[in-house]
Each structure stands twice: as structure tokens, then as C-alpha cells.
Amino acid sequence: MNLDLSRPSGSPRIAIYSGTFDPLTLGHEDVARRASLLFDEVIIAVAMAHHKKTRFTLAERLDMTAEAAARMPGRVRVLPFDGLIMDFCRQQNASAVVRGIRNLTDFDYEAQMAAMNRKLNPAVETVFLLPQAELQCISSTLVREISYLSGDVSQMVNAAVAQRLLPKKLEA
Questions:
Q1: Of the chain's two ends, which shows fewer C-beta atoms within 10 Å, N or C?
Q2: Number of H helices, E strands in the chain
Q3: Catalytic residue among 18, 36, 95, 140
């Protein structure tokens, strides 16, 4: 297999990092930061997620993600998306999709998705990044549950996200 992430015709190497980010965790931030050092531009694509019941609205998730992206090195943008990620990659002229892998369960699922995405758009490579070891146990689902039960999530999300989780606990 020929992995060529070089710039065709001098165009920038753009990567898409997609997810629901409900909420954005420190693990998500770590993966996005690492990707921003590898690519000319990273677009954090926040999924509308109409198939899921999210704790935060799309606008809230976009705001939280944009706040975190503003502190990252390199060029990082935040955009909403709906539909197939490969269609979004075409629209944004992306050459790669970045996926965070925390464990073997993640890998099994993400490897299957990467193979399917390759069938849909062979020009886009999937790049797997591991978050720092101390962040690998964090998931948005666990953060929501811990927060709902009044647990301390300050080591799992940034301070702005932790503040936004407080009123959500009262609404749930």
C-alpha cells in the first residue's frame, strides 16, 4: 500500500477529525493537537448526530470545540457536518481522516470504518492517533455519567466544558 500524504499540486494537507464531541474531552483535545502538528490544517467536524440523543446542542458542542481549538497550535477550524464523512472530506478537499484510538475495542470498530471509508473514497487515508496514556480511559459517555452523578470531571475535560456540564446535570 502506498501511503502518500504529500500535497498534490502544492495544496495544503487537510485532515478531518470528526465526532459528536458530547462533550469534548481532554482525550479529544490531545488527538486534535497532535493532528495539528502533522497536517497543514485540521478541521474538527462536529457531527449533527441526529441519530443520537446528545446532552449538548450542536451549537453548544461547536462553541466548546471552537474554544479548545483556539488554543491549539497550527491551523485548526471547527465546522458542523451531517451525512457521510467521505462526502465532507470531498467538500473540504481533505486527504486524511484522523481517528483517536483508546483501546482494542476502538481499534476493531475504527479499522472497519476505515476500510469502508476507503471503499467510498480511496483518495482519503485514515490516520489513527493514540491519546496520552493518562487520557485513554476517558470517553464522553463516562464524562456525562460521572458529571450527572455529581462526580469530579476536572481531569477529563477542560475547565470551560466542566462549567457547562454543571447546569446540564440540573436539566437531566
A1: N
A2: 6, 5
A3: 140
Q: Is 50 a catalytic residue?
A: no
Whole-number pLDDT of residue 166: 84
Q: Which residues of the chain have pLDDT under 70?
A: 1-9, 168-172
Active-site option among 52, 71, 77, 154 = 52
Region class of 42: left (phi > 0), else alpha (psi between -120 and 50), else beta: beta
102 in catalytic set: yes
Q: How far apart are CA 28 and CA 52, in angstroms?
A: 19
18, 28, 36, 164: the active-site residue: 28
Decide if 40 contacts 72 (C-beta within 8 A): no
- Residue 168 has a pLDDT of 59
**CA-based nearest residue to 13, from 137, 96, 69, 132:** 96
- Cα gap 161→167, rounded to integer Å: 11
With contact defined as beta carbons under 8 Å apart, do 136 and 114 qualify?
A: no
pTM, full prediction: 0.89
What pLDDT is stored for residue 169 in this prediction? Answer: 56
Catalytic annotation, pick one of 13, 75, 90, 102: 102
pLDDT digits (tens, 9 = 90+) for 63-104: 999 999 999 999 999 999 999 999 999 999 999 999 999 999
